[in-house]
Amino acid sequence: MAKHPVPKYKTSRSRSKKRHATWESQLANYWENKTQAVKCSDCEKPKLAHHICQECGSYKGRKIINKDKASDAKIKVVKA
Q: Which SS3 state, helix, strand or coil, does residue 27 take?
């Protein structure tokens, strides 16, 4: 049977709680900075970075989705 590494000393509660608290705060900061809104290059309305604009349907200056003004249910995808 293979020998597995075993900790030499017991990890105290305070040490393990410090480690988990740091990890949780880093994760919270990551998601806080990840979901920032930027202005759309076409319609100047806020949108998520690296996503298609929900208002005009463009991405990086190109029309990706044609939206019908009469009905929001009718969406046509434009082939690039």
A: helix
Which amino acid appears at position 73 of this protein? A
Residues 64/54, Cβ–Cβ less than 8 Å? no
Closest to 22 (Cα-Cα) out of 10, 14, 11: 14
The answer to whether 47 and 38 have CB atoms below 8 angstroms apart is yes
pLDDT tens, per residue, the chain with 80 residues: 778 899 999 999 999 998 888 888 888 777 777 777 889 988 889 998 888 888 888 888 888 888 665 555 556 666 65
Domain residues of the chain, as ranges?
18-77
* Pairing status of strand 65-67 against strand 62-63: unpaired
Residue closest to 51 by CA, chosen among 43, 78, 40, 42: 40
